[in-house]
Each structure stands twice: as C-alpha cells, then as structure tokens.
Amino acid sequence: MNAAAAGDGPWLDDAAGRLVRPYTVSDGRTRPSTALDLLSQVMATGATPLGYLGPEHTQALDLCRAPVSVAEVAAHLKLPAAVTKVLLSDLVDCGALTERPPSFHDNPTDRALLEAVLDGLRRQL
C-alpha cells in the first residue's frame, strides 16, 4: 500500500483513494451543532481542545491558523461540506475555533462574490 502525499497520512492510498468513508469521520453525524455557511470564516483560537480529536479534526485545525472559509477547509480535506461542517462545529464547541458568518447580508448569491470564491479555490488547489 502506497500512502499518498505525506500530509494525507494513512487515510489515503494512491490506488484505492480514501480508506475511510467520509461520514465515518463525523461518526455518522450529518448536522453540525453550530450553524456554519460555506462562506463562514473559521479561525483557530490557540486554545488546546480537550478530549480526543481525530486526524481530520487536527488537519482542519491546522488549516485554520488564519481565517479561512468552510468551503476552503472542505476542499483541502477532500471531504463533503456537510462532514467538514460537523468537524468544524466540534472544534467551535470545544473552543479551539471561532466562527464568523459571511460579511454579506443583502444578496447571499451575488454572482461576483461567488466567482471570486471559486477563483480563490482554484488558485489554492
């Protein structure tokens, strides 16, 4: 078995792909305890989370050293947005992350904003 990139660890395999089903990562939970939008910004607080964190929680926390959107975290973790929201919600609940809703309120489907987010994601990947 060949591990993929070093940062992917034992959860990905070159030939097989993801070795753990996405919803296993969230213990089968599909709803976060914190309301998170794909454009919500999350950032690490520096507080050490109490209790066990899975490897995906740790990876998500590492990605959140600077403010980052939920969509970007999902893309980097290669997980569905619903699973990512559950993971990030766990981290908000234990005080390791803070979240801020998107800064727009008038038009959440502003085409220019969505295209800017898409362009940013493409540059990152």
**What order do the SSEs take from the amino end to the carboxyl end, as H and E?**
EEHEHEHHEH
Low-confidence stretches: 1-8
Structural category is: alpha+beta
Mean pLDDT rating: 78
**β-sheet strand percentage:** 5-15%
CATH topology: Arc Repressor Mutant, subunit A
Give the name of the CATH architecture: Orthogonal Bundle
Outline: globular
Radius of gyration: 15 Å
How far is the N terminus from the C terminus?
A: 25 Å
What is the number of domains? 1
What is the highest CATH level, the class? Mainly Alpha
Strand neighbour order, sheet with most strands: 4-3-5
Task: Give the count of helical stretches.
Answer: 5
Count of beta strands: 5
Kindly state the percentage of residues in helix.
25-40%
For the biggest sheet, the summary is:
3 strands, antiparallel
Report on this model:
With 125 residues, the protein is an alpha+beta fold. It has a single domain (29-103, 110-124), classed as Orthogonal Bundle (Arc Repressor Mutant, subunit A), CATH 1.10.10. 38% of the residues lie in helices and 11% in strands. The protein contains 5 helices and 5 strands, in the order E-E-H-E-H-E-H-H-E-H. It has helices at 22-25, 55-63, 70-77, 81-93, 111-124, and strands at residues 12-13, 17-18, 41-44, 68-69, 97-100. The strands form 2 sheets. The chain has a 3-stranded antiparallel beta sheet with strand order 4-3-5. Strands 1-2 form a two-stranded antiparallel ribbon. A hairpin with a 3-residue loop joins strand 1 (12-13) and strand 2 (17-18). The radius of gyration is 15 Å and the shape is globular. The protein starts with 11 loop residues before the first strand and ends with a helix. The model is unreliable at 1-8 (pLDDT under 50).
